[in-house]
Amino acid sequence: MSPKRPHLVYSSSSSPSRSLSPQPKRFKSSIAGSQSESSTAIVNPLRVHIIEAKLKVKEIAELRSILESGKVLCDADSGQFQLVYEAEAKDADVIVTAVKMRKRLERYIDWDLAVQKFVITPDWLRDCAKEHQVLPYDEYIAVRSLRSSTQVTEDLSTSVAEEREDSAEINYRSPTSCLRLSPLECPNQELAEKLDVLRHSRELEGKIMNTLAYERAIATIKAYPFVITEDLLKTEVSNLSHMGVKTVAKIKEYLQSGTISEAESIAEDPRYQTLTLFTSIYGIGPAYARHMYDVEGLRTIKDLMFHYENLERSASAEPDVSKQKSPYMILTTTPEKTRVPTLTSREAVQLHEELNDPILRDETERMHATIMKELGHLQPGCTSTITGSYRRGKKHSNDVDIVITHENLKTAGDQVKSLCEQLVHRLYSRGMITHLMGLSNFGNTSSRTAERGSLYKVMSVFLPPSDGPSARLHRRLDLIFTTPELYWTAVVGWTGSKMFERDLRMWAKDRGFKFDSSGIVRRQDSHPYFPKSEAEVFELLELPWIEPTMRNADI
What we know:
Residues 69-142 form the BRCT domain. The chain has helices at 57-68, 102-105, 111-114, 122-131, 149-154, 156-166, 189-204, 208-223, 230-235, 245-257, 261-268, 270-279, 286-294, 301-317, 345-350, 352-356, 361-378, 388-391, 415-429, 487-495, 498-510, 534-540; strands spanning 27-30, 40-50, 72-75, 79-85, 94-96, 118-120, 328-330, 339-341, 359-360, 383-386, 396-397, 400-405, 433-441, 455-462, 475-482, 513-516, 519-522, 527-529. The chain is α+β, with helices and mostly antiparallel strands. Strands 1, 2, 3, 4, 5 and 6 form a 6-stranded mixed β-sheet that branches. It has a 5-stranded mixed β-sheet with strand order 10-12-15-14-13, sandwiched between helices. It has a 3-stranded antiparallel β-sheet with strand order 16-17-18.
């Protein structure tokens, strides 16, 4: 049996086996049976931090209640200690956790800190409160790597089982898209597309929860590797995650009749067709589309044009500067303070056919080559990746997304923003960017990985340079500039698909991280991580590698 680790000792002459936080304040406490001020005992605060991961709500409340009660514990060697809750792990003497693996513990505190503290199970706190004394720590050490060698050997089989339980594997039965292979074309593609009509109709009507339910069901079907039959529907498919009773009934109807009657009816509905047309225009969402259909009585593109022309005339006749949207976006870091026109609603309607015309892969590659050639005149040696549906293998895209960085880009001094705006200025001056739809700095978002200015995005209308007899069509182009440290996180975040990214964020959250395209941070203390490859992003989040072409969890 391993020797017991010493209790906490705060005397300056003591030499505990672990360095603890600075010398604590001492409280005076009356000893039972004595009322004289001279007969007081020194009570040391014993600061306890709780890592709430893997603890149930009732357990957290129980442990907090013990600490908030201010119980005084006796220790044979060191006097008395009063339990005190400590919000910061770095300032605590003891860290209570239900986590049993080093890798998982490091999601919440640094390992260098863990080896300086007593990291123990919740039972230690409960037993101490019950016995009214500071119990030895060795019997309660939470993480195997923090125990003595003898204990490590004894617990090896348990640890292996825990690691196996905590590991993630690719499995089509998994409830999360980031643990499933979702090909571009699945064995049940036609069925998924029929269900997508139902999903889209709910989205157009603003039924958010119904929309999400269909999205998850479609993602499950996209990853199912076998052609669904009535037998498989009954024995397995109906038991997969996110397959509700109504969805299963729709699938059964499809298997028996070759179609879904509701989807066919919706596809032929004039209202559905009009709302679909309206929402295909930049700047028009489902709610506004319904307003124009139900309230304004609009039905066609000509109706929309007339509607927006009237709005512009009204704005000219009775200008209200406070309500008008600026017709320009100003590039603040360019010497000329370039003013680039914003895309108005009327112009979006005029260009809707071009902006919705599919962009084939070879055109996407030509656009990318043009962008990088122009960027090379400003900053040679930039690195870039075409993301979005192109990277997932689709034959055509609705827009082109390009993530860009350079090894010398730094957060300080608006370097990311400056390079982005310089490129926009250059493309605009050469007639290749005609309008801006958005100019956004995401460096100070909810993901605190990046300092302000580390990720910058421009949404634009791009018009390729004249190239022989081929038609020049207006295209949507999104440029995402970032620092080298955040480049691969941005690539993962902008590759998609929508459902894959949603589940990726939820997966990260459940494991103590905040993830989005602007970075990865540990939720406990906002500690940032900077993966050096796309594969390292998956490794950090403890996910198996999934190729971009297998992330098509949506239609």
